[in-house]
Amino acid sequence: xxxxxxxxxxxxxxxxxxxxxxxxxxxxxxxxxxxxxxxxxxxxxxxxxxxxxxxxxxxxxxxxxxxxxxxxxxxxxxxxxxxxxxxxxxxxxxxxxxxxxxxxxxxxxxxxxxxxxxxxxxxxxxxxxxxxxxxxxxxxxxxxxxxxxxxxxxxxxxxxxxxxxxxxxxxxxxxxxxxxxxxxxxxxxxxxxxxxxxxxxxxxxxxxxxxxxxxxxxxxxxxxxxxxxxxxxxxxxxxxxxxxxxxxxxxxxxxxxxxxxxxxxxxxxxxxxxxxxxxxxxxxxxxxxxxxxxxxxxxxxxxxxxxxxxxxxxxxxxxxxxxxxxxxxxxxxxxxxxxxxxxxxxxxxxxxxxxxxxxxxxxxxxxxxxxxxxxxxxxxxxxxxxxxxxxxxxxxxxxxxxxxxxxxxxxxxxxxxxxxxxxxxxxxxxxxxxxxxxxxxxxxxxxxxxxxxxxxxxxxxxxxxxxxxxxxxxxxxxxxxxxxxxxxxxxxxxxxxxxxxxxxxxxxxxxxxxxxxxxxxxxxxxxxxxxxxxxxxxxxxx
Length: 542
Prior knowledge:
Keywords: ATP-binding, Cell membrane, Kinase, Membrane, Nucleotide-binding, Phosphoprotein, Transferase, Transmembrane, Transmembrane helix. With 542 residues, the protein is α+β, with helices and mostly antiparallel strands.
């Protein structure tokens, strides 16, 4: 089905294309989000990594550094290791981040663990190695403690130094008044008890849900340290969704164009061929690629071009032949009229009138043949197919031929009366009549007529004679209009060279063929016309 319908192939291609574009969009989102998630993790840890590095650097000796690291691990409830630099294999990107006082984050998606590597100020030979498997509310509340510990070294200058280190954070870190925050009485009470609180805010903006950590500042009753708002990671932000949608539509449009391009190219070829035909050039033929609608269109165009070209050639040949065929009887009629004008003998005048009458009859027959041939040649005639008992039609033609007293023996091979074929009675009668008439003119003594339905379901009529036959190289020429092969087939034998052409066209419009070869039994010519015995296949009633 897909092979024979270009539209079904396009529809199927569209379905496949949509699936591929959807898969492409999904993979692209995953790849982009992998990088976004990595950048998000790094942005959350950069500021705290800087503060921890500063806190360790302030310790005067190695033992106090280790104690500070141990206290930080207990506070965060995370394992923190103080390792030598040669035990950690860092990539070029990670080394660059550590040199910029940022954290290097490695995420293990299989175990959902993050490993944070922090460089130490004034100690390039060691790193802090932190393993974080989850982030709890207690750990988030512990983060402000590191900032407050850092600010404790600058009493009275907390805001100035906080502003300096805020550049290392990807989110706001500032000191605000309690009354400036949207807090309820319970939250304010917890701050007065020196407890940190976490604020969740849902927003319809692009930022979405955010988290803020509010921590009281020792010695400041009305001031608090606010970290945030920190937006939660959004797996499908508006910008990403819009970008992926536009890119998918662009890829889909390219795919649709690729699916339609072959059909567009073939239509362009058809338009070009039609323009050439309009200019009078009928020699161009289209390549027939496949059996779909476009292939059928190309085949129909080629058939139409062949038919138009053949019609034009047939019209030219007809005009030449008609002018030639009409010239002889007209000349004889003119000669007969001149003789009538000059002759006084009554019997001779009667003889001339009879000859003129025969010539007029010949003209009528010629015109009838020409009209029949032209009607069959120019286009599809109006055919009224019906069930015909084949033996009745063959017997009628045999009887009509014997009535002409041709002195030729006509043999009709036995045929069952139950053999019925689909045909136009008038035209089938004309076929058998023309074939038999042709055989009568060129046989020696005997003609044989037969018919039936073969094993392939094709109906056929066959006319054989015992004449000289037709040479193999001339067998196709006999079906051309006004064709005469040799001196044995002259006007003396009768006919105008149109009978077999008419048979050929009737066979064509019947959907069949006409062939000529040598009769094996009689030795002369054998003409066989075959066509589908069943024109219409009717569905059986259930």
